[in-house]
Give the backbone structure.
Amino acid sequence: MQYEASPNRYEVEQLIGQGASALVFKGTYENNNVKHPVAIKTINLDKASQNIEQLQQETKLLAMCNHPNICPLYQSMVHQQYLWLIMPELQVSILDLLKTLQPIGFDELIIATIMYDVLQAINYLHQNGQIHRDIKLSNFLMDSQGNTLLSDFGVASFIRPFSNDIRSTFVGSPLYMAPEVANNKPYNQAADIWSFGICLYQLSHGNLPHENCQAMEALLRVIQHEPPKISSKRNFSKQFKELIDACLQKNPSERLNASQLLTMKFWTKRADRQQLIDTLKEYQVMRQPKPNAFQEQVDTANNILQSKQSVGLSSSNWNFDEEDPVVEKKPEEPAPQQIIEENDTDIVLSGVQKLVEEVKKLREENTKLKEENERFKDRLKMFMNQEE
Ligand SMILES: Nc1ncnc2c1ncn2[C@@H]1O[C@H](COP(=O)(O)OP(=O)(O)O)[C@@H](O)[C@H]1O
Ligand SMILES: [Mg+2]
């Protein structure tokens, strides 16, 4: 079935998630008087730095991705100042699953099943010359059959522009960032592999490395410290340690690539799908949705979808900084002021960028001083020669 780019055929019912610059709704698409369930993600273009034509071209690229472990994009459209992305409605993000069911980490069999799915998706993107750039647990979504799908490929680029294969723009979530990305150096597919390694760490421990640091501090630690090591108090298998090690190398060229990772021994022991489906069911019992929560956002979204006006540039209708929606969120988070908020990303990044610029300036000054010093020495030599 074709999902057409006609806003008024979509209707939202419930807010199911909220990211740094997007809201995700459960909703429907109407075709021949039948309503088909979909997930509808809206991104406020007032916050994006790309022009609309470029953005639409990129959504076409996304729509061409075709892999069983990549969440498909059915349709994308710009209506008013929002980009609307239409996708299948999946069951739960792996982040919410972890936080709700296993705050100190899943066992290796479950991790292997989930991450083998994700790794195949990453391998597909990398083989096609793409970089995901926002590999993190909230972008891994489970369907009703216990399969995990990688979502939001390319969406990070709507927030910030890019042009080359080797990119040097800051994108993604700081705690998952590879050292070369945190350090504003050019990067390639290996950056995704680092983030994949961080996800393995998070799934096995329940928390992220440097999770309790201030944002800047966390980024500096990623740049300056040795890669995170898994807890020695836990009984992790040798195969798991080897896998994490192969991902978390500070030098990107020393990380294995996705197809090499797929051949590692760790993947030979995986849980069967039924076990994943049971885990999903357990989650569905645990969470307690509030049916009428965020009704205001739902009403606003529907008003915009039904309105005739197409691309407009008026100011934001939604406050994206509102409290997190519901339900699936996170029983065991540390004190709020200690967490890196997604919304802090820009502040953090501009901070690090400033730092990097300052270091650059200092280096340049240093080079100048050295040159002057050399010249001075030369003159001194000449002077001494004349004296002799
Ligand atoms: N297709 C989907 N089906 C079900 N839930 C989704 C879907 N896409 C996103 N979500 C939920 O919405 C949340 C917010 O998504 P997003 O705006 O991409 O931010 P983030 O990935 O940073 O959490 C996700 O964490 C996930 O729980
Ligand atoms: Mg996402």
User: Anything to note?
Assistant: Residues 19, 138-139, 151-152 surround magnesium ion (ligand 2) (CB under 6 Å). The two ends are 93 Å apart (CA to CA). The chain is about 40% helix and 15% strand. The first strand starts at residue 10 and ends at 18.
